[in-house]
Amino acid sequence: MKNLRLVPILLLGTLLPPAVADDLTVAARATASGLIQRLGAKLKEEMVAGGPDNAIAVCRDIAPGLAGELSRKTGGRVSRISLKTRNPLLGQPDAWEQQVLAEFDQQAARGAKLEALERSEVVTEPQGRFFRYMKAIPVQPLCLTCHGTTDSIPDPVKARLAADYPHDRATGYVLGQIRGAVTIKQSVEDAR
């Protein structure tokens, strides 16, 4: 379980045919990568158009909408999560997600290629069996405007974040860390 590449345990203890499990992983990877790319492009566009204020609005307003759109399209729950949430009402990881995020952080600290960190498996929970997938979101230079260290975040951004997110814990990041992840959870029964 220490290797965060797609691991053989995906099929252990499951009744999913290998082709179905592979298809779910490929689809989840495409969904997660698509969300990260769309969000990154929108952030860059809004930074150019209106600076950090517009970028804050992208993460606050547009990102949850994009995740909701993908959830409706795929039939699974698509969202962004982090161990250091900005909004405690959104982005809180469940136990499985917390464990995987901690493993991503350990891998990042050991110099793993951040863009390649992902995990997929089928898990049994009290509500049933679910296909779970996570793809790490590495800290990019653009992220540091709102998620960097106290010294690197401009004062107007600090003021806006304090007003919009009084319980913000999503700062203090530096390049080479994992900001969070895109997570996908889909019922195995819906996936067959």
Task: Describe the protein.
The chain is an alpha+beta fold. It is 46% helix and 18% strand. The protein is built from 6 helices and 4 strands. It has helices spanning 18-50, 52-74, 95-109, 144-147, 155-164, 188-191; strands at residues 77-81, 118-125, 128-138, 178-187. It has a 4-stranded antiparallel β-sheet, with helices on both faces. α1 (18-50) packs antiparallel against α2 (52-74). The longest helix is centred in the N-terminal third of the chain and has 33 residues, at 18-50. The radius of gyration is 17 Å and the shape is globular. It starts with 17 loop residues before the first helix and ends with a helix. The model is unreliable at 1-14 (pLDDT under 50).
Low-confidence sequence ranges: 1-14
Series of H and E elements? HHEHEEHHEH
What topology, given as strand order, has the largest sheet? Answer: 1-4-3-2
Count of DSSP-assigned helices: 6
State the helical fraction: 40-55%
Primary descriptors:
single chain, 192 residues, alpha+beta, 4-stranded antiparallel β-sheet
Topology:
Layout: H1 18-50, H2 52-74, E1 77-81, H3 95-109, E2 118-125, E3 128-138, H4 144-147, H5 155-164, E4 178-187, H6 188-191
Antiparallel strand pairs: 1-4, 2-3, 3-4
